[in-house]
Amino acid sequence: MNVSYEFLHVLIYLIPGFISSxxxxxxxxxxKEQKEFGKxxxxxxxxxxxxxxYSLVTKxxxxxxxxxxxxxxxxxxxxxxxxxxxxxxSIPLIFCFFITNxxxxxxxxxLRISKKTARSSVWFDVFSDKKTAIIINFExxxxxxxWPLYYSDNPEKPYIFLSKPAWIKKGKEKDEFIHxxxxxxxxxxxxxxxxxxxxxxxx
Length: 203
Prior knowledge:
Radius of gyration: 25 Å
Oligomer: single chain
Largest sheet: 6 strands, antiparallel
Number of strands: 8
Helix content: 40-55%
Number of domains: 2
Order of helices and strands: HHEEHHHEEEEEE
Structural class: alpha+beta
Number of helices: 5
């Protein structure tokens, strides 16, 4: 397989960006799957950030490729590679922390630059921010109480795992909670959720 000098250069400088992009995809919930062109653009942006930080810290290149005739020789320093890996892992983790906690968009909303959040949906926003017990109302009239320990990020597929659940039975004077002697219950889309009540925390 013949590999051109230019292609080898591009490949080496894109690898950190692809590593960062892969970590970002694993750790972060995205509204929709990226297309191939979008993945390449993201890898380029990450590579630019990685090598900019690396250059500012070391003032060197982590690898040098020299073309002699039709062959290539390269040299590298393992310490440089370790630093490069640390940078390309740290950047997406920092980004994911900001996105998951909506920190940068909170600042943007405070400055009235934007009204958007960083998360993929309003469903995900509410479950991420409202750490409280809930009551799920189903279309068939049934109601269940519990703590949403796990939940899907997609409102079109509303999966919710309720910890310490209790069915709610309507009484004459007040509702009766029928606690289930189980760890939890998984609510699936087939159960047709009508609405979800987020209860106030007790002071």
